[in-house]
Amino acid sequence: MSATRSEWPLYEVFVRGKRGLNHVHVGSLHAADDEMALRHARDVYTRRNEGVSIWVVPSHTIAASSPAEKDPFFAPNRDKVYRHPTFYEIPDTVPHM
Predict the structure, then answer these.
(1) Can you give the pTM of this predicted structure?
(2) For residue 47, which of 24, 32, 26 has the smallest C-alpha distance?
(3) Could you tell me the mean pLDDT of each successive run of 10 residues in the chain, 97 residues long?
(4) Domain span including residue 55
(5) Triad 14, 20, 26: Cα angle to 5°
(6) For the domain that residue 15 is a member of, what is the CATH number?
(7) Is residue 92 included in any domain, yes or no?
(8) DSSP 3-state assignment of 54?
(9) How many CB atoms lie under 10 A from the CB of residue 35?
């Protein structure tokens, strides 16, 4: 390998625990390729058998919203009232509502 460790791409690591349903971001690592990233993620982040699934994602492929955009980005659309069915009457015969 001619590339040094500082030139390897950065990967974000997500692990799904035995009891959880969702993958959780656990950290980052540098690796030469996807396979090496998976192996290093396994060795570093699941040493005590705490995971059942690992995702490694190149950091440069992740697109994320900014916390500063929270209010305008996640605010509900007021022009689409049908998305919020507050004006429907639910009959008493409908269970689990």
Answers:
(1) 0.66
(2) 26
(3) 71 88 93 96 87 93 84 69 70 81
(4) 5-62+69-83
(5) 25
(6) 3.10.20.520
(7) no
(8) strand
(9) 10
